[in-house]
Amino acid sequence: MKNYVAYVGSYSYTGKAKGITIFDVDVERGSFKKRAEVEVDNASDIVVSSDRRMLYAVEDYGVVAFRILPDGGLVRVSSKKVNGMRPHHICVDQEGKYLYTSGYHDGKLTILRLDPDGAVGPIVDEVYHKGLGSIAERGSRAHITCSKPTRDMRFVMSADPGIDQVSIYRFTGRPGEIRLVDAIRTARGSSPYFFTFSKDNRFLYLLFDMTNAIDVYRYTVSEDRGMPEFTKLQTVCTTGDNAPGSLNAATCMTFTAHDHYIFVGNAGDNSVTLFSRDAETGLLTAEFNLPISGEYPKDVAVFPDGQHIVSVNHESGTLSFFKVDYEKKLIVMNTNEIPVSQPNCCVIVPVGEDA
Question: Per its record, what are the GO molecular function terms (predicted)?
């Protein structure tokens, strides 16, 4: 059996957490055991490279790169400022060429080049979103919460709940050549918050936090103009059959390894919803909506066996663990929760010679 470790990113400004907590993972039991902490100033998000050699984390005013050791330990390699405020979200492309950061506070997309050894290089391009939105508590201005390339690497997309839009850019990799080519314009007050593509790159799943919804789109590229085309196929409620109350907000969306299922966390009612996914049509079907035994599930991570999940509960400062029964459509808490101060995110990574 492979060995796995989990990395949990936390805010550190209260002094109760250092930034990243490393856990040993018991896949069979579906549990974590704390090993160590690594200092990062306010790790609002973390991501692991596709070859699992590097871990990248947000820190105040920039990003930091760590090399993942064979035992799962972390060694700081480099850090870079992003010429702006602390990013909200971070993403690395499948080829390990670029790092993409999303600025919630300043509405800034920043793309940094990665060196061959995985260290963070210089800024290649940066774009500030402009415009006015409709959500008063967000200042009615641009706030980028998620930026990623399409899986074919032809475009870069940025979700902005402040202006109710997903901007689509053509990115060549040459400095200063990023160009806005289109946008998915969503309803006023819908707040597009996070998105991901299916592994076959055919479907886009766009999560709206204020309206508790997922929109499913078919993604193609026109042969004559080489432009992205998104066809809306479906809208589903993230709180299942329950009415999306005004105090609820969808917080996260996580696929299982083979895209068969999607878990969505909801703050307010503090629940998790499971959707099954049709691989051919891309459409989603709600299977259950159940309480997550914590406050503000900011992330949900799926264990490598696909049979367990961990909920990262930001407000209650806990990690709660569940076994998933897909046939009976329920989750059962399978071990004691673990306290972690203001956790934001979690990734589970194989380590060692078999990784």
Answer: 6-phosphogluconolactonase activity
